[in-house]
Amino acid sequence: MPVTSRPQNAPALSHRERQVLAHIAAGLSHKQIARRLGISVHTVGTYLRRIRTKRTAPTVAHLIRLGVAEGVATSGGPN
User: Fold this and answer.
1) For the chain, which residues make up each domain, given as ranges?
2) Cα separation values, 31 from 7, 45, 57, Å
3) Is 47 within 8 Å of 16 (Cβ atoms)?
């Protein structure tokens, strides 16, 4: 399943969705992401469901590839 950056008709990811995606692409767990962003683990899951609704990314590997395609994944991890 190819992952590309945003298809023309797909809604844009919100700032917070991009932050969560960057942390997932950096290899952080849901709990680590929640702690860093000051949100609950449940909220991290909600953001990931929203991302998956907007893009085709059924697995973590797809989310990582999506993070690269969206330009949020960097070699140094999220800021």
Assistant:
1) 15-70
2) 30, 10, 20
3) yes
- Matching residue, tokens 């190819």: 2
What does the alpha-carbon distance between residue 40 and residue 61 come to, in Å, rounded to a whole number? 23
8 Å CB contact between 24 and 60: yes
Q: How many CB atoms lie within 10 A of CB 75?
A: 5
pTM of the model as a whole: 0.81
Amino acid (1-letter code) at residue 14: S
Could you read off the pLDDT of 39-78 as tens digits, one per residue?
Answer: 999 999 999 999 999 998 899 999 999 999 888 886 555 5
Q: 15-70 maps to which CATH number? A: 1.10.10.10
CA count, 13 A, side-chain hemisphere, 72: 23
